[in-house]
Amino acid sequence: MRDLEIRGSGNILGPEQHGHMLAIGYDLYVKFLNRAIKELQGKEVEEDIETSVDLNVDGYIPSSYIENEEQKIEIYKKIAAAENKNDIFDITEEIIDRFGNIPDQVDNLLKISYIKSLCKKLRIKAITQTGKTVNFEMTENDLSQDIIEFLIKNYYDKISFVGTNEPIIRYKLETLEQKKLLKELEEFLETLNNFKADKTAVEEKNEEI
């Protein structure tokens, strides 16, 4: 797939496939193509997950910042569609270029979107906050023993587990100050994502041997 991205899809896709790509968008087409390749290789394909986020944080676009409703909806959609840190950076640059310095509420919204993207990679269904406790609700079977052991080793004083059909990781926040709260969650989820990515890379390498 990297080769496709470098050389340009129009050169190596047939007319029909290229038409499909134009219809649904390049990024989504690549995602579907990767899924099809995994299925042909007999690899398990995980269904996409949509994470809901409920944090005690002011994250929105004030009308005093973007007055035009169509422009506001456009920016909301772009923020919601972000899948990684690079996407957030690009959107941030665009917003600043078009509308000026970003107010705290929009900055919070961007951070929430990034946190949501990290949760999707970890297959976390929902984040909810009650006081200084944040619950991460996992999908069934996605809280592996390796992740549990990693969390106990590195966050033994901050986390606990609720064993249900859909297990929950309970995380104890250091602060309720909004920016620090978001930064803390971001760092926690990045660490967990890096662990999962490293583990997956090792497993895939072992499969090739």
From the spread of the alpha carbons, the general shape counts as globular
Mean pLDDT: 81
Question: Stretches where pLDDT falls below 50 for ≥5 residues?
Answer: 1-26
Biggest sheet: strands side by side, in what order? 1-2-3-5-4
Number of DSSP E strands: 5
How many angstroms separate the termini? 22 Å
Number of helices: 9
Taken as a percent bin, the fraction of beta residues is 5-15%
Classify the secondary structure makeup into a structural class: alpha+beta
Helix content: 55-70%
Please identify, by name, the CATH architecture of the largest domain: Alpha-Beta Complex
Q: What does the radius of gyration come to?
A: 20 Å
For the sheet with most strands, the description reads: 5 strands, mixed
Please summarize what this structure is.
With 209 residues, the chain is of the alpha+beta class.
